[in-house]
Amino acid sequence: MFKKTFTTVAMAAALGVSQVQAATMEDVERSFYPYKDGGPTFEGLAPGMTINSGNVAQFKEILDAAMFQKISDGWLEMTVGETTSFDLHPNYVQATRDNLGQVSLGNELGQINGFVAGRPFPEEPDENDPRAGEKLSWNYKYGYNWGDNAAIAPFYWKFRDMESGKIERTIKFNFHFLNFKHRVNQDPVPEFADNPSNLFRGIYVQVIEPFDVKNTQLLIHRSDDDLVRDNTWLYLGFQRRVRRLSSGQITDSFLGSDLMIEDFEGYNGRISDMNWTYKGTVNVMLPFYNHNALTLATDMVEKDGYQFVDFSGKGGCFPNITWQLRRAHILESDPTDDNHPISKRVHYIDAQTFTIPRTLIYDRKGDLWKSFIIGQAHPDHHLEKNKGTGVSIDDSFSQVDMQAGHCTTGQFKGQLDPAMNPPKLFTVQNMRAKGR
To answer: Do strands 368-377 and 288-289 pair parallel, antiparallel, or not at all (unpaired)?
Structure first.
């Protein structure tokens, strides 16, 4: 049974949206360059210091609830970094300027009008706007996360027992992303001419090892029309066939990990699958850093010398990174489907990049279930090919199941390289060919 969303949205539109001020060029500048005059500060907080169980109480105001509890319990210590600007690509910013004032929400959840490219709603969210949360969700969907296309090759997931610290399983993947529409930087701009299915985005995943799941593949086609359901296919190597996944399987554990497919990137689903509520804007510690300045892992160095983020803390479940005090919009999403396995997610959306570096996931009873960290690396302090791309690079992740005492961690080699993501990669035919 589905919750009623249309009536709520229509009533909200009638009652409140007309009072919201239109976005201005000044809004665009504030949205993309919030640290132009310096970053936020908090008494006693300084770059280079460590927040631990001994001093965490004085920093409770700038920590999300789960992070405060985990540091208090001694699960991890947090190294503080300097707040720095993660400037997105100038073409994306210019596309926002060019289309300013042309975008509006439709009457139904999941409808948007007049969008071409850039950030759809660059204005500050307004607590008096009943659809402010929905606008933030569109800013995320059409954000510059991974740019027009990218690959994570390789991408290591490790399943860990938090009590023993034992690594139970390691899976090596390649992930690929391609935007078919609303492109701003890489040819073709603004979209591919040959796109009969009106796709916005494709995601393709291939397992490289271990042998028992080698060549397992996942393909997601996301329509530009948010009211059209995703097409999702799975290829299982041992079965040697492609099968379509139902919407319910998107919320199952993916390959035995602590993640569901819907968790990817912080949220990997349709706007219309959730109700969105804006809960305010705060200064909070978020996992943003310079990859090349970290003390990196030495046990899995790539041939080109690339080193991955290392992990430590309880069970080895937390990335060894620095955290910045940054502006974030708190966005709550609750499923429109009453049969969904969660009751809500609380996202901390970075106000500059509109990536989702922190998410708290609650079970159907309303209890905290999982805590999700996605580390964001500055592109100018990463691989040479990533410099100047203006992409806040997903670089590490930790999904902790607080109830089961288990976690899945991820170590990325993110690459902004169009040659690695040809359109033919995002086809069912490619899945069959790779599986032979």
So the answer is: parallel
| Strand positions, DSSP E, 26-148 | 50-51, 78-80, 104-105, 112-113
Distances (CA, A) of 122 to 204, 243, 341, 376: 30, 40, 32, 21
- Helix (H) / strand (E) element for 91: namely helix 90-98
pLDDT value of position 216: 95
Q: How many residues does the chain have?
A: 436
The helix (run of H) or strand (run of E) holding residue 322 is strand 322-335
Q: Find the mean pLDDT for residues 340-355.
A: 98
Q: Name the β-bridge partners of 360.
A: 346, 371
User: How far, in Å, are 30, 144, 289, 329, 361 from residue 333 at the CA level?
Assistant: 25, 21, 27, 13, 10
φ/ψ region of 52 (left if φ > 0, alpha if ψ in -120 to 50, else beta) reads beta
Number of domains in the chain: 1
* CA count, 13 A, side-chain hemisphere, 310: 13
Query: Confidence class of residue 327 from pLDDT cuts 50, 70 and 90?
Result: very high
Confidence of residue 269 (pLDDT cuts 50, 70, 90): very high
Separation between Cα atoms, residue 356 and residue 376, nearest integer Å: 9
> Has residue 96 been placed in a domain?
yes
Q: Does 117 map to a domain? A: yes
Residue 137 belongs to domain spanning = 6-36+90-141
